[in-house]
Amino acid sequence: MLQLIAVHLFAALVAPVLVARFGRKVFLPLALVPGSAAVWALTQTSAVLSGSGPTEAVSWVASLGMHLTFRLDVLAWLMVLLVGGIGALVLIYCAWYFSSGAKFLGRFSGTFIAFAGAMLGLVTCDNTLVLYVFWELTTVFSYLLIGHYFERKGARRAGMQAIVVTTFGGLVMFAGFLILGVMEDGSFSLAGLVTSPPEGTAATIAIVCVLVGALTKSALVPFHFWLPGAMAAPTPVSAYLHAAAMVKAGVYLVARLAPGFAEVEAWRWIILVAGSATMLIGGYRSLKQHDLKLLLAFGTVSQLGFLVLLVGQAERAVALAGLALIGAHAMFKATLFLTVGVIDAAAGTRDLRQLSGLGRSLPWAAVPGFLATFSMVGLPPFAGYVGKEAALEALTHDGGPYESALLAVVVVGSVLTFAYGMRFLWGAFARKPGQEDTSVDREAPGLFVPGIVLAVAGLAAGVVPSLGEALLSRYAGSYPAGEAGHLTLWGGLGLPLLLTIVVIAAGLALFVGRTLVERAQDSVILGPDADRAYRTTMRRLDRGAVAITSFTQRGSLPVYLAVILLVTVSAVTIALVNSGAEPGEVRAFDTPVQLLVAGVIVIGAILTTQARRRLKAVVLLGITGYGVVVLFALHGAPDLALTQALVETISLVVFILVLRRLPAYFSNRPLKGSRWWRAALAASVAVLVMALALIIPHARIADPISILFPDEAYEYGYGRNIVNVTLVDIRAWDTMGEIAVLLVAATGVASLVFLRTRSGQVHRIRDRRSDAAAIWPSHLPDPATRLGPSIATTGHARRARTWLPAGGSLSTNRRSVILEVATRLLFHTMLVFAVFLLFSGHNAPGGGFVAGMVVGVALTVRYLAGGRYELGEAAPILPGALLGSGLFLSAGVGAVPLFFGGTVLQSVKIDAHLGILGEMHLVTSLFFDIGVFLVVVGLMLDILRSLGSEVDRQGEATGSAVPDVAHDSPRSTPDDAEPVPRAPEGQGL
Predict the structure, then answer these.
(1) CA-to-CA distance for 931 and 549, rounded, in angstroms?
(2) Closest to 526 measured CA to CA, from 283, 347, 338
(3) Main-chain dihedrals φ then ψ at residue 351, nearest 5 degrees
């Protein structure tokens, strides 16, 4: 079964390419894909009937009880035949239905095949969680198929309506499956649920939730309105999804669970009320439709209610009739939809008021149309008659109130079915008095074949009812009550035969008096319009969402943070109080130095809250970070201290780069009215974090896994630096995810800063003249003389080796002799130190992350000393190349062990004797660490390029200098900074 689903997936992927290359005739070979499923099911018939049908189980997410488990019993066998067989015939029909120039046929073909594969998985899988996956896949694919003509507003609305309703039902159903699965003695296996159904209030609630999903999928009241709207889809979609596949999913689920839950009181009444209302309302609405397709759509709604009524009962005889009607309905309703498609294509309309004489002009459409209609209304010797007679026979045996009500609904619904069936035949094929025969186009013979095959199959199934009984009685026998039923053409004289005569007579009377019936329907309003109620609900939901969003999304970052922190404090405090957790033994400090450092951190935090200047607040905030560095060092954690120091330094630099584009002060308001509640909230968060730090370590009930890390790091990671080995070996998957997040963050930062597209060029000093010429308007002074003497240097001067080749590009007020000299001394030293940290990190403090941060600090210093051109000289490479190559290297190194029988990210130690160089001990996780190093360097380079050089370039492009943070005080004068010419309006970039 998995192989068949895989074939459908493969065909769905290649179908668009084949259709685009060879055209609509590709639908013919594509029909072999669902057809193969039907053929396979036929080959398994004897095994299925003997109770030894094929099963398949593959462990998937074992921790959740989610396994790919499939089985083919009688019900699944029947559904596979319908899904595969009718799917193949509909694809054959598509080869002639669509014109050669039809648009989006490739997408249609792939979606159709994918839907057939999802439906195949749905009806064969035994795991409820996997069933939900296939359930939602059919929802998504049906949305795409219904909205195939997406240029039309009606198609888009119909697709959205279908996906909203069925997705809602699917989520409710999923909740029911979860409740059933986690209950004591519950199971995620459909067979297990039916064999040993859980009991109690929770089980009843769960089964009601499951029924909601089935009712929405099969368009039962009150969710019936989406199916008629879905007639905006192409006719082949209607013939397949709404006759044999999608809507049958809900009927299938009811039939699958009924043997275990049909005697639950809530189940019985939901099935009775929803099924009865659907059968009667659908039939009633069909009598007033003028569009043949809509007439069949409401008829389908009615028939789905009928099917759910039958397969949802506990009696075996009623269930057998329902199973027989599932097959009969699929055949006659698919035939009728295909027939309407022929009529629409030949006559150009589906309005029965404009059609006349098609019975003679389209005989190859009329024949299957008549045969299918006779089966639908229940005339002998068709399959529909056999199933309906079996239902009447079964329901007349028990005269209880419930059964009597059910019998009355079936009889009245059958009368309506007969009436709208005759209305269909009359509207589609009869010659109307006083109306000329409708002219028709000649259609390809292949267009008639699928309908004729299905209509003849419905007749053949009715002629040999004993065969259907032999095939279906095994599953019907699994129902919990009553005697075995029978399928027969002649049940003798009795009440069922009398009721059949009444149905035919009353149905003919309604048809003959159709004019009066339509007038009566127009003058009577039975109740609220479900479609209108849906649209009203969606409008109110949209308005409510807008109101809630406007209230919650206020555009204020302080408000957002306050809400998050308030919820956190409230929820965690309540949990701590209810748990009764208490802090364990607390030691205030180990050495007096810790007290001194803690005092500095507290003072820095208090001063930060008092600062109004942004730069001052950032610098003071850095005191707390560097204080933590000292605490780490005092506790003997050099790795953590080094990492924290580097991160704090980089954070400080990034803050300063961002502050260049922000006002110098946080606000011109004194904020006296809100400072107290802000202080109270901050204090609450601080107290909570302190409490958690004291309580959580002592709340552990099991030994921490970290106590195993020292031995594991050395024995399996081959390193003595536990921190680094943890990152690159023990928890390498976490590190892989983190560097992927870093890559995404770098992309996001650049996307926010670059105005249009990310430049693919690294700006170096040799590009300065062209850049300046592009930025400065022609009437202003030459940028070569305006921006510094180095721009007009000779070729000999440019070839001279310098430590900071782009230093001269900065204006004089931006240059710092001390910073330039320090950069010349430290830059290469920092690079060498980074390499040392990278290679020594496995056994000593260091590692790829720390080394990458050191290189980032070095690049930052180089940029601050020489400007954006100096950054290009220091790192003449695109950040994306470093980011991508680093992630590729880490992932590639992690996958290499798979080729040698190992596991992902497994490390190997390589020992070698290098002669006079000594012994070499190399661990392959070093290459993973190099990938981390490249990602971190790429991130730092991307941040500097985005928030640094690109902001500089944009400032120059607008004709204004990027403001120095030291000169952005509102008390400073224009003379504090060197004037820079502005480009006239309209000439700046």
Answers:
(1) 42
(2) 283
(3) -75, 115
